[in-house]
Amino acid sequence: MESPPPPPSLQELDAAEKIILLWDSTASEEARERMIFDGQRDEVDRYLQAVDEIQRSLSSATLASEDDQSKLNSAIEIAMARLEDEFRNILLNHTTPIEPDSLSSADPSSSTHSGIADSSPEFEDYPAEDDSGLTTPKASSVSAVDVDELLQRGDSSNTSSYRSASSIRELDLIPSDAVFDLRNIAERMIAAGYPRECIQVYGSVRKGAVDSSFRKLGIEKLSIGDVQRLQWEQLETKIRRWIRAAKACVRTVFASEKKLCEQIFNGIGTAMDDACFMETVKGPAIQLFNFAEAISISRRSPEKLFKILDLHDALMDLMPDIESVFDSESSESIRIQAVEILSRLAEAARGILSEFENAVLREPSRVPVPGGTIHPLTRYVMNYISLISDYKQTLNELIVSKPSTGSRYSGDPTTPDMEFAELEGKTPLALHLIWIIVILQFNLDGKSKHYKDASIAHLFMMNNVHYIVQKVKGSPELREMIGDDYLRKLTGKFRQAATSYQRATWVGVLYCLRDEGLHVSGSFSSGVSKSALRERFKSFNAMFEEVHRTQATWLIPDTQLREELRISISEKLIPAYRSFLGRFRSHIESGKHPENYIKYTTEDLEMAVLDFFEGYSVSQHLRRRSQ
Predict the structure, then answer these.
(1) Do 276 and 261 form a contact (C-beta atoms < 8 A)?
(2) CATH number of this structure's domain 513-611, picked from the four choices 1.20.1280.170, 2.60.40.10, 2.130.10.120, 1.20.81.30
(3) Lowest model confidence (mean pLDDT) among 155-169, 393-407, 427-441
(4) Quick one: signal sequence residues (predicted)?
């Protein structure tokens, strides 16, 4: 082990002091205008050697007098003030903005929810807000600035799986020769007892660089209160940007700042590298995570679920990187904040799903939809749960308990029931989705009772349950969770509704085409009562015309379902009418004004059935009848 060098001689100390005083910026205009480290290397080395000699002399306790010690202490103070300026100047000269390509490539992965995070779900025809708490997400009216284009190249939106810290992309923020000079200065400032000054200078300059990166990424200085006062449409845009920016901040900006601190300060003093790192990034990190925290504690509503899940997935994805970058004891508060935000986002998602279920059950609209078509609530709910199924990986981790039925809605004495035994083996999320469908049907059944005509009430239920079935079939993820057994149960319900409609509408019409009551003596060999027959034709005509007039204005939106129901009607109506007409036409035609009783041919009825369920307005129907 080498012994320390001997203390400098008095001549060496005098020479060192002269060098220090030569660069005293408070005493010399030339010293104020020039920077030592901007000059020749030998000049830099002489100055550092002078500082070392004076510091070594002060440390050796071999000075002859207090005057000499005071003189050298004054020289060290001058030198530290000078080195502080030099430190700041080197940092400023070599602090350049991070290139946009470096920020945009912070996350090379693709998104799990491709296309979801950047688009609002299509909730067709549902009112923006009502007393139930159901609120339709609207397309964002806030246009994205060029920052989004800058970041889009490197990131789609989010993922829901952990990745290792290999996603961190550290950059060399300052050239190695400047790092060498900064480290030389830091060593001397810390040895002389000026670590706080060194930390403050470093933090003030590098924090400005971090702020510049934040601006490039579109991260605004918003308090939690500021965020909560923004309209949701504005927040949707900011959330999309935050997800991309957070990845760039943690994996590139913060990670690179940590690397620079280690390059300059590692091994100098006690945890100086960590102290300078936290001085630089603690404020920006809190600013970054405050946005997510504000979202996590904001008022819950259904349209917020998917952006909250996007935030949750993005933060979950970042957690290994956050733990890697903020791995010291002094940065524990940042790790804790991120974990707590993640927990609150998960709780918010669970709460929103629970409140959504309650809102679907108690959605209060009582005005029947015209024509018995699909209710806006049905479209809203099914589009909503279709999107929920796209987040099944995340939600399967967050939703761990099955839905509470019946007693949870204590304000509603009549609630649907669900037999969980029939759904054994399904995930809690799948049970929640099935439960939403159950309470949707329960609500729709209540709405169907507001129709005065039983036929349109059955048609309404057929339309809506059929729509539910089609939405489940149209989403592979949703179909997998719901399961084919329950899907068959739903299919049976809309087919039963179709059968009930036909009974309610056509039993009375077809009853007019029976033979009973037309024969005078009750024997088929006896004569036919022409008066009874005329009344029978008149009754049929009147009933069919009323059905045609009414049901041409009803609507079955699904083309295939509409055609299937028309065929089913024709298969019952046309043969019965043809047979009745064949048996009794001659009895009418032999009397007066047969056209008053036999108004339709079978072809006329076939054509009339084609008008059914088209959703014509009354005026359209009258125009068609007059043609």
Answers:
(1) yes
(2) 1.20.1280.170
(3) 155-169
(4) none
